[in-house]
Each structure stands twice: as structure tokens, then as C-alpha cells.
What does this fold into?
Amino acid sequence: MWKYRYQHYGGPEVLERVEAESPSPGSGEVRVRVRAIGINPIDWKLTRGDFRLLTGFKPDRTPGADFAGVIDEIGPGVRGFSSGQAVFGMLPLLRAQGSYAEFVCAKAEHLAPVPDGISMTDAAVMPLSALTAFRALFLHGRIAPGADVLINGAAGGVGSFALQLAVIGRARVTAVSSAENQSYCRGRGAIHTIDYSSADPLQDGSALYDLIFDIAGTLSYRRAIDGLRNQGMLVTVHPGIIALCRSVLPRRDGKRYHLEIVKPDGRRLHRIAEHAAAGRLAASVEQVYGIDEVETAWRRSMSGHVRGKLALSV
It folds into this structure.
């Protein structure tokens, strides 16, 4: 089979496409022939060496977490899936053998069937971003109908799913994005929109929120905390020592802080698939690239101005 790999850290140019032996599924696993790959910033951040304390100083890794494809081999102990079935899912973020490959082996419990009417590329871009949003809003944020939610970075990959899921949960959403993405956010259910280039979303302190989801990572921590109601939560997706400390140390004012580090979650991925099948949740794919265009696709992702998601078609 073919796969992409990198053996030293750097930009997209360090990736090389090589031939390798196809993996065999272990107990509880299935092997999937990959048809589409979802691109996430963590793909190129890991390749760049941003987390080398976790991934080692001499890498030999295949990037990627998100994928959709067709099961072609089933390991022992697997129930509920069949050969030839279309599935989608994500691999653990720090796994050395990622999804940029012709075949991947994944735990069956981490997968969900691709809903009827959903393309492989739309399915492939959902797992990491939609699971991040779902966990932040409902598992940790525990938002209830009528909650006031501010999403900073609402037009991006995680943000576009967070906006739709918050609306599904009947929250009142304020979306922070660029001026050109205001109508995009309103079209997905935002009640209020803020152009980050012309106003600080939290500057005047007149609005209070039950949850602030700082996906872009640009909000002042102090202003964000001050912008929460009692028992409100500030969620970030940007790991670091300070974020880790804030996430484990309790605050005296009853407000909460959470660092969301997503992991495979088949049960919640099935919920996401149900929303997609019912037309309540839709992927927004800015562009689909060919599998030989990884470097171009990554450079677009690195620009920081992608509306929705990018995908690779195999």
C-alpha cells in the first residue's frame, strides 16, 4: 500500500509518499480502505514538531486522524460491522500510523457507518472537529436549552460544527468571525455575529455567557472569565502548560475552565451521524484536493483562513 510519512520535523515539504506493507486488523479492529481524509491543523502541527516531547525527537510517523472509507477486513471479536460497509472515524492523535494511507486499522468501537446521502469527503471531515465541538458543548459545557454561547472562530472547522450543534441544543449563539463570514454564520443559526477585526467581542462586558468556546485562541483569559455567568465555562482547544494548569485548578468564583483534547468516541460519533442523516448537521468543505496535493492543501490550512474544512480525495 502507499502512505505518507515523515522522518524529521518540518513543513509540508518533509512529507514523502512511500510503499509499505498493508496492516492487518487486530482483535476488535477492522481494516478500512481509505476513500477520503479530513485535514486538521493538528496534522501539520505534529509534523512541524510542536509536540515533540510527546511524539519523540526522531519521528517516523504517518500524519492524520480523520478518514472515511470501506471496510475490507474484519478482525476477531468485531460485531455490528461488515465487509464492504462504508464507515468514518478518527484515529488517536498521537498514534504513529495515521490516516494518510491507503489502508488504516481502527477499533470498531471508534467508528460509525457513513449515513445515507453523505459523501465520503463530507464524512471524512466530521470526526475530529464535530467530536471536539460535541464534547466541549455537551459533555463538559453541559449547555441547556436557552443557554447563551459565544463561539470565537465560528466559521472554521471546529467552529462551523460547534455553531450547528449549539443550535441543535437550542442555545442562543453569538458567532465571532471575519466580516466576510458573518452571513455564513447567520445562515447556520447564529443569532448575533461579531466581526473580530472591528470589535473585541468581550470589551464592553455588557453581555454574559453560559459558555465561551475560544476555538481561535485569541480571547483574553481575564475578559473571557469576566464574560461568564456564575457556573459558566470557558473552553479552549490550545494545549500548553498554562492551559493545563488552569484546567485542573479549581476557581473560587464558581466559573470553570476546560482544555478540550479530543479522542476517538464511537458512541458520540453515532450521535453526530444521526444529526447528519436527519439534515440537522452539515459539513462545510471549502475545497477537496487530490491525494497528490497534500502540500498545497496543508499550506491552505496553515493560512488560518479556511471556511469550514479541507479534504483529500483518494
User: Anything to note?
Assistant: The mean pLDDT is 96. Residues 72 and 279 are 28 Å apart (CA to CA).
